[in-house]
Every structure is written in C-alpha cells, then in structure tokens.
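Subject: Sanity check before I submit

Could someone independently write out the structure tokens for this chain? I want to compare against mine line by line before I put it in a report. The sequence has 178 residues.
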Amino acid sequence: MKFRKNLEIKAPIENLSACRKIAANYCGNKKSALHYFENQEDIYYSVKQGRLKLRIINGKNGTLIFYNRSSKTKKRVSNYYLSQTSTPAELDATMTGLFGKLVTVKKRREIFISDNVRIHLDSVKGLGKYLEFEVIFNSIDIARRTMKKLINTFGLDEKTFIKYSYSDLLTKKIKNAG
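---
Independent answer below. Compare away.
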C-alpha cells in the first residue's frame, strides 16, 4: 500500500471569523466544496517511529492515522495511512494496551474542503486557535504552488508558522506546568 501525501502548514490565529470568510470565499460555490464542523479527540500513542493517533470524531466514529513528517521545516510533507473504525473505544483500548498513551488533544475543527485543499480552523483545548492548510498531492510542485496561493490569499506571515504538531505543543505545555 502506498502512502498518501500532503503538504501542510499551521499558524496561530486571533480572528476565526475573518479566516472563515476568506476560507468560504476561497472555496466559492464549487460543486466539490464542503464545509462542516467536527469535535475531534486525537489520542496519540507512544511509538518508536512516526506518529500514531486515533481520531475520534464527534464521539462516534474514528480514524486511526499513522504518519511520518519532518519537524524541521514549517511547510511539511506528511506521508500517511488512514484506517476507519466504528468502534473507536475498543480500538483505543487495544492501542493503549499495545503502545501506551502519549497525550490526548481535544479540538473543535471547522473544515473547508475544495478539490485537494483542506482548510482547518481549529480551537484546541489548552492551546488556542489555529489555521491549518493541507494540500493533498501527487505532484509536489503543484502542491507548492497551491500552498503559495493559499498563504497569499490569507495574507499569512510565514514567520508565524509552527513546525510542531498539537501533540508536541500540548506535551511541552504540560511538562512546563509540572
């Protein structure tokens, strides 16, 4: 099985409603465009290589996600696998028994999708508000051009981009508090 790939960035934001308007405008009235909300609970497990998390969506269904990506750059390529489950609590018990839990990230995510572009407006418990772009790709060159267009459309300053995952940020916050 071949990894899926995306190019992504993440940045803190202050004004969700301004970003929402830009995202809605970017997606426009395309037939392929989607817009919806999810409550997500991402449970990260202690694995030796890459990252493994179970995303529980609206407390009902889940997606097991294994991915590799560098934390060296702020624009990152993720290589990932997805596996759906209708029994996330049972899968969590199994994964916890096998690997142990690392950290749990809870967020309210507003999702805009247009073609191969996913725009996320995240309110992350204990961390704040963030904007995330994911450009799913077969060609990295096309993905880079699309990402540049998104960054310009939203007027983002690349200096504000974050190269760490929410799990890294939350783990660091917990360690500093304790």
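---
OP: Matches mine. For the report I'm noting this point. The first helix runs from residue 16 to 27.
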